[in-house]
Amino acid sequence: MPKPRTTAGIIAALLIGGAVAVFAVVWRPAISATEPPAPQSFDANLVKRGRDLAAIGNCNDCHTVRGGKAFAGGLPVPTPFGTIYSSNITPDPETGIGRWSEAAFLRAMRSGVDRAGRHLYPTFPYDHFINVSDEDDRALYAFLMTRPAVHAPAHANDLAFPLNQRFVVAGWKLLFLRHGTYQQDAAQGAEWNRGAYLVEGLAHCGACHTPRNALGAERASASFSGGDVDNWHAYAINARSPAPVPWDTDALFRYLRQGWHPDHGVARGPMAEVVSNLSSVPESDVHAIAAYMASVFGPPTQDHLRQASDVRAQIKSPPLELSPTHAAGASIYSAACASCHETGRPLPYGGVNLGLSTALSAPDPRNAANIVLSGIRPVEGERSPIMPGFASSMTDQQVAALLDYLRSRFSNQPPWNGVEKAVQDARLTQTVFVQTSAGPQNAPADPTQRDKP
Amino acid sequence: MNVPVILDRRSVLAGAGALIVSFSMSEAFAQDQTPPAAAPPHPPSLPGSLKDAPLLDSWVRIDADGSITVFTGKAELGQGFKTAFQQIAAEELDVPFASLKVITADTGLTADEGYTSGSQSTQYSGTAIQNAAAQVRELLVAEAARRLNLPVENFRTESGAVIAPDGQRFGYGDLVADDMLHVQAQPKSKLKNPATYKVMGQPVPRVDIPAKVTGGEAYVQDMRLPGMVHARIVRPPSYGAELTECDTSAVEKLPGFVKVVRDGNFLAVVAQKEFQAIKAMKLLSAAAKWKEKPSLPKQDDLLRVLTGLKSNDSTIFQQSNPSATGQKTIEAIYTRPYQAHGSIGPSCAIAQLVDGAMTVWTHTQGVYPDRQGIAEMLKVPPASVRLIHVEGSGCYGHNGADDAAADAALIARALPGMPVRVQWSREQEHAWEPFGPAMVTKLKASLDGNGKIADWNFDVWTNTHSMRPGGAGSMLAAQHMAQPFAVPEPKPIPLPAGGGDRNAIPIYKFPNAQVVHHFIPAMPVRVSAMRALGAYHNVFSIESFMDELASAAAADPVEFRLKHLEDQRGRDVIEKAAQGFGWRKGQKAPPDRGFGFAFARYKSLAAYCAIATEVEVNRETGRPRLVRAVAAVDSGQVVNPDGLINQIEGAILQSMSWTLYEAVTFDDTRITSIDWQTYPILRFNSVPENIEVHIINRPGLPFLGSGETGQGPAAASIANAIADATGKRLRDLPLTRKKIKDAIDA
Amino acid sequence: MMTLKVNGHDHQIDADPDTPLLYVLRDDIKLNAAKFGCGLGQCGACTVIVDGKAVLSCVTPLLLLEGKQVTTLEGLGTIDAPAPIQRAFMEEQAAQCGYCIAGMMMRAQALLQKNPKPTDAQIRAELEPHLCRCGTHMRILRAVHRAARLMDTAELSSTTQAIVHGSAP
Hints:
With 746 residues, chain B is of the alpha+beta class. Chain B folds into three domains: 9-206, 2-Layer Sandwich (Aldehyde Oxidoreductase, domain 4), CATH 3.30.365.10; 220-293 and 341-427, Aldehyde oxidase/xanthine dehydrogenase, molybdopterin binding domain (Aldehyde Oxidoreductase, domain 4), CATH 3.30.365.10; 439-465 and 500-745, Aldehyde Oxidoreductase, domain 4. Chain B contains 19 helices and 24 strands. Mean pLDDT of chain B is 92; it is low at 1-43. Chain C has 169 residues and is of the alpha+beta class. Chain C has two domains: 2-75, Beta-grasp domain (Ubiquitin-like (UB roll)), CATH 3.10.20; 84-157, [2Fe-2S]-binding domain (DNA polymerase, domain 1). Chain C is built from five helices and five strands, in the order E-E-H-E-E-E-H-H-H-H. A five-stranded mixed β-sheet of chain C has the order 2-1-5-3-4, sandwiched between helices. In chain C, helix 2 (84-91) crosses helix 5 and helix 3 packs across helix 5 (137-157).
């Protein structure tokens, strides 16, 4: 859902650069700097609403680096085009948005242009924020301008020429930034519409869960068909969902609210940060998101329902006979994994029965590799599931053998290709993710829920 | 010492030299017959634990070859007192530190010093050793003087010898004869002048650390006896659950299987190798069917649960001065959940029955009382049971150690001759250890016109804080047997030390004060002693409330405390901590940070401790972070300053973990905090930047126990810093991120 | 029967392949340093070094270790000839009960082999899987810093080489 870590098609600008009236497209005026408004000048209720909205928008996640101050930016966001660093959105007058007027903030949210008139890279998902109402933008502004100011100069992006020229972003916008992508649907109820407004707008779920084209823009024709973020696969969350048990509104609500669901396991990777934020917002908003997303998933097919009941039956039955081709993986599973994943201890503190694992039914093995290597790290001082990572104790071949076995035993999908390569990649990328992301990286969201069961 | 002490009495008595100083065997055997509680009628004026074991050779033994052994009935729990005792003995005997060895708790060898608890080891056992050693030295000097027929004043001691005026040296081994040390201690000893100390007061490196950092045998977990087998317990899933069915046939077919031991609801399996035992336990666990019944209270409503239970109320302190009248009254209620000792190494014990004699190697805190319990459980005379203390993982009070010892003994009885090692699982330790009891305190006080406290009311509701054995009924194995032993009637620990009311009586001077202890006999959750007992929460409450009062009086928290404190040593540690911290009246912490201060004298009779802290609170997440802590401590004459600092540092970090994170959780039937996922404690990413400990040494003054003195002040200091940072007062432990965030957002 | 290389020596191990390394070390090879703390990979007390990396021996089955080199605290040095990390922990008196310390030291050793001059933040992050209940954390941190300095000195004088088995080059 969060972090559109795939940046825009700067290449697009190269292609069209000569063909358009560059100046008209590119040039945006600066909006004059204002004195930072006094925090007391904002209405407390507006600030509180802004706090909830910021949590739904997952702002803290990209704009905070591990060990750093909230909203002070500096998080490296890897993209196919280079690394972009998130900016400081605290009200610091020199390095943050302290001198931004409300109008400047609204323009940034709407059209991806900063106060000085520079185009922002679409790692900042204004292609979604364009749908956010003025009223909500004002609340967000009030919230951010009442945060403690942090002096934290921007980290220079790591992009090669000409991608480091911001004018090319203007070309990208010309191609891909669409106004009015979200419209109220009178045929649907208020909750559905609220959910649609949040999902398509501030929550920017598609930024991760929708695949992107070669120029880094979301493919409108493949909404929610599965995307990439931080070297994790963001699963398809529509009819193509690989989840062994179909999602419904209630399951979505519980998962998003508490960070885990008995039929789907525990949120981890970038999704853990999302659910962590959703634990603190009004329950009605999470329910609205769940209701809307359930309609995006659509009603489960008979096939899917049959598969789900097969999976449930398998969980109760003893392990299958091991095929000799997977003997090594099977032994690793029974020695290293089964002791937690087959104890029957309920989630989230018992390991999920892997028959329910979406990762093992997913189109590629990245998530499964990530989780085997890195495990699930504890949340500081809070009840949270822990899974030891096996990066140090298993070789690439051992992890690959394990994944091949898990795929064959716990999913009805064909074998993955290139598993060992995926494991090698995961070793490199997860190190960066774990070291930079502020986290919580792997956890149920709502601490009040952590007591249960 | 590289290996656990596994000596028998004979080998120790045989010693190395020809001349054997008889160990006070008659005394030891006499104790076998008497319950440990009934101390023999000795003169009460003897210092420290000499009161209970007045023969000098119960403490110090010198062989003909000059080798010296010091005995203590206390158990090394990782506090490092074994090193401290060796320093004390070396100092008063005037021998090199390395030339003597210390033997700790063993019912076959050492005096009955009850439990190693309450920060009393140095205060009681250390004092006994100090005086015994000094008196032994006097006897040796007298013996040399007798031989040369010269006045004792002309002799001095040096490095294990008495030196005559003409320079003639008498080695201690040459002087000691027959039962020279088998004599009653005297009330007064000629202690050394602290100004001449050579070993005491020095940061002597701990004797146990080299083995611990090189993989030596350092713990009971590391002991391997010839022919030893491995046992695992299958505990019931919840308190009071009954074993209804257990098909053992599958388990019996496992490789390495030795035996299933079942006695009522006690179920265990024994195998040749350790992992075989674990596999067998899992299989047996799956085969065992239990009938459970919901018996647990509401975890989220401890205030109402505790104050709703029947209590025996006693006013433990009352003072009135009608001339002082309050003008501004404030009230507050503080709560503490059940909390776990959470030893890193789950409990372990080894037992072996040979020719009717049961030996148990255990990390219990009380070899004698524990022996009493095990003997009662096995229905044998105590003299046929020997308990030897071997170090375990730190326990911080009554954890599963005694229960594991009983488990091992019960299983070993079924396998005569075989040494049986019982190792608890992580889940068992977490679910079955007796927890630190939940507590509720209600405070009410008024300020007079001058901002001084005019009246003070303190009420505390809690269970007993010690269900330690003595009888079999305190041990799980005995409770679970087919013919179970009843859990003994809980009793409050008498004042001045107190249990749940420990430190409930304020050290400050108030004109009007009343303190009421509401002792709750019913124990819905298994509880017992946990480091500092009631003092943790009572000090947390008093010292938080002092800040609330200071704030109401618009006074500086440090100044406000000093204004109500007469005790000069208390004032000194407060001033020292404040000064070390850089505390200034009217100070303001940096943005999102707060400063906190707290103080206590542990048990009102042990060490003084004041702690100032700086805490940062992330306003977005609510996450608190202890940035730094500065402590000052006065524990009387310091034996080992580095050991003392280590204890205080540890107390601050452990208390921080209790205070910010920890609560035992349960549903209506089962304990649900059964591992480190569900009972999170401090990890490295929350460790503060710096902890500074200042010691106020009091040369020549009595040792004051200091192992637990930091727990309460650390908690209150952190709570006060959070209040300073957020402007919100949190009164329900633990002060979690979520509670802080909710308070900020409210 | 499987051959397991521990502290530079080959051991013939007669144990089921699913036996966690911890029990092989303690039960079959009679080593003390790796400790049972949870058996769940949650506390770090069982940490040893395998091929230069810190691993949790309680969740590492024997079958993963074919051809790998295992190093335990015993393999680093002895009381009489302590390795730098052991000297550092003695000199800083970095233990109370000490039960968690062997695991801490092994992870610190693996860190220092890979990164001889870690920052304080790196040490804290690295030790996150490890629990200490006595609250000895400040001393443990100091000891790891000291070990880094001692190893640096040791390398300069090039005297104490080859005491570390199984470390990656």
